[in-house]
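ok trying again, last paste got cut off:
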Amino acid sequence: MLTIGELASYAGVTVRAVRHYHTKGLLPEPDRDQSGYRRYDAGTLVELIKIRTLAEAGVPLARVRELLSADAEQFGAAVAQIDKRLRAEIQQRQRHRERIACLVTGDNLVLPPQVVEFLDQLRAFGVDERIVAVERDGWIPLAARSPERIPEWVARKQHQLTDPHVLDFYLTLSQALDWTDDDPRLTELADSTAAYLTRIADEHGEDYLNDIDLDPPLTGLLDTLALNTTPPARRLIDLLAQRGWTGWTKLERINPKPMP
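nice, full thing came through this time. structure:
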């Protein structure tokens, strides 16, 4: 006869595990001897080893009793079902691992690969990381709102980057992050940007500048995001309004405000 400590040692489990199996009703509690100690026989040891083997194989304790009493056919069917569940869990965990591996740069968390590639292009061109962050945060609600249009919109943005003026705007805006509102270079940037917008609108139509049809509330949200995180943008918008253009996410031609 074995003490609970000896039983646990022979079965390769802890005493706590034995007591847990008693509580769950998987392992019957033996009678106590005259000294008040539990004493276990060989049959109990065999049952405990079976329980441990099933538990280590991933069988939920709630099903261990069922398997212990099952015949060969029932046991095989139950094991096949458990194996199917385990394989599904493994696949899910693998997907989680792949997703975690993609989070190294941070951009992959909630953005599709096309947007991440575009952001990496901006970095490669030397655009300030603060501007890239604004772009990234702007794409997040777009990807959530209209995921099916992301490839189209990204392709357009990538095409725009082939225009030296657009790329120069990104690079100049990167430098402008550290300019004051009265820096004359902001006025020069507004002049060149307004001239570019006017030329593009005259050549291709104003819809060419605004083919991303967004709800006004979302447009306003994205504008606020850019203005709050890119301080020179607010002053630049004011200067552009004096030159006949308004908006940030959605550009529109207006009657120019009088120059100060």
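cool. Strands lie at 245-246, 252-253. The longest helix spans residues 72-101.
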